[in-house]
Write a structure and sequence with these properties.
Distance between the termini: 64 Å
Strand content: under 5%
Helix content: over 70%
Largest sheet: none
Keywords: DNA-binding, Transcription, Transcription regulation
Protein name: Transcriptional regulator, TetR family
Low-confidence stretches: none
Pfam families: TetR_C_46
InterPro entries: DesT_TetR_C, Homeodomain-like_sf, HTH_TetR, HTH_transcr_repressor_FabR
GO molecular function, one term: DNA binding
CATH superfamily of one domain: Tetracycline Repressor, domain 2
Structural class: mainly alpha
CATH topology of one domain: Tetracycline Repressor, domain 2
Shape: globular
Radius of gyration: 20 Å
Order of helices and strands: HHHHHHHHHH
């Protein structure tokens, strides 16, 4: 990669980071202006168009390039359903997931905040990303002998339920992490106890979901009307 290409890539990531920083302060993506972003990056507004067509294309690129890479790493690292190890698979997977949330709080904050946000382009990009992640989990579950009796359609539903449940934990976990890192007066022992309690509860929720699926029969009918 040439120095010019490197500089262009660095500027592109600077735009991504500017959006994440602004969103972390409480702004929604749809409320952020192009001028705000360029001011954060330290470039003139016309420089923006060398990288993106508009704010929607910036948001879409952020989701695909940055969040997509994060979810790909998570999918590759999770152990739910893997044949290679059955030792505390669910507990280890939940710990790994929450650890990754702590490591990249801006990405996960953006994902959960904008999943149902005001930008259609960002919503669609996140939706596609979540579907891809759920399919990866469904494929992973197919490797687990405990779920071979469930058909592919139901495994996909189970994976989607799991992903939605995992994502529902993110904001609460981030609040604990943010308090731990930024509040000098907080009792760190109390925070650690709260984190361990949340980890315990999240693990049990996942166990109830996946252990319950072990007893599910795909032949069971789902009736919507009498």
């Amino acid at each position: 990669m040439s120095s010019r290409e490197q500089k262009k890539l660095q500027t592109r990531h600077a735009f991504f980071n500017a959006v994440l920083d602004l969103c972390m302060t409480g702004q929604s993506f749809s409320s952020i202006s192009l001028r705000q972003v360029t001011r954060e990056v330290g470039v003139v507004p016309t420089a923006f168009y060398r990288h993106f067509n508009d704010m929607e294309s910036l948001g879409r690129a952020l989701v695909v390039e940055e969040l997509g890479g994060t979810l790909a790493i998570l999918s590759d690292s999770l152990q739910i359903g893997r044949k290679r190890s059955f030792d505390r698979q669910i507990a280890k997977s939940i710990q790994l997931f929450l650890y990754m949330v702590s490591e990249q709080p801006y990405y996960w904050q953006f994902l959960v905040s904008e999943r149902y946000g005001g930008s259609e382009a960002v919503r669609k990009a996140i939706n596609e990303l979540v579907k891809k992640h759920a399919q990866s989990l469904a494929d992973d579950l197919a490797l687990q002998p405990a779920f071979t009796h469930i058909n592919g359609y139901d495994r996909r539903l189970l994976a989607e339920a799991g992903v939605n449940m995992f994502f529902s934990w993110i904001i609460d976990w981030l609040e604990l992490t943010y308090t731990e890192d930024h509040d000098d007066e907080i009792d760190l022992n109390e925070i650690e106890e709260n984190k361990q309690l949340m980890l315990h509860n999240c693990t049990r929720q996942a166990q109830m979901l996946f252990y319950g699926a072990y007893n599910w029969k795909s032949s069971e009918e789902t009736l919507l009307k009498d």
